[in-house]
Write a structure and sequence with these properties.
Shape: globular
Largest sheet: 3 strands, antiparallel
Strand order of the largest sheet: 1-4-5
Helix content: 25-40%
Radius of gyration: 15 Å
Number of helices: 5
Number of strands: 8
Amino acid sequence: MTPRTAWGRFEGRVVTRWLDDGRDMALVETFAYVDPARVRWEAPAGSVVNGASIPRPFWSLIGGPFEGRFRNASVVHDVACVERVRPWQQVHRMFYDACRCGRVGAIKAKTMYYAVYHFGPRWRLEGHTLRDETPPPPTPEQVRAAAAWFRAHEVDAAAIPSLEIH
């Protein structure tokens, strides 16, 4: 187990194997993130991850889903977006906290949080039916505007859900 920080902690290590489709990977070992409120977000062995919960148009800005310090956050976020047992708003906030736990810088982590919150997977439970409400992907102009905005402004992460960048 790794030491606890203000941003939580990761448990285990990301050990994967590529699947035959050349895009997806399966976790060989269970991996988890424990957030600052001590909520455990588990990615069980056998889970399939591909970084797709980070909107693809943002990859050119932040890097691909399997590179950099946000990889661990991407793994638990992918699994939470597939499982959909917690509200999407909580899942995306966990991604931000996990990014910061992984030592992703504040500007990059906030940009990524904005990306997944405003353009990433969304769902709603209606009775026993899970409804997908994922918005359309961002345009290149929206990606450029978000990148420029976060470079020029300091914003608290709690404000990102209500932030509208044009």
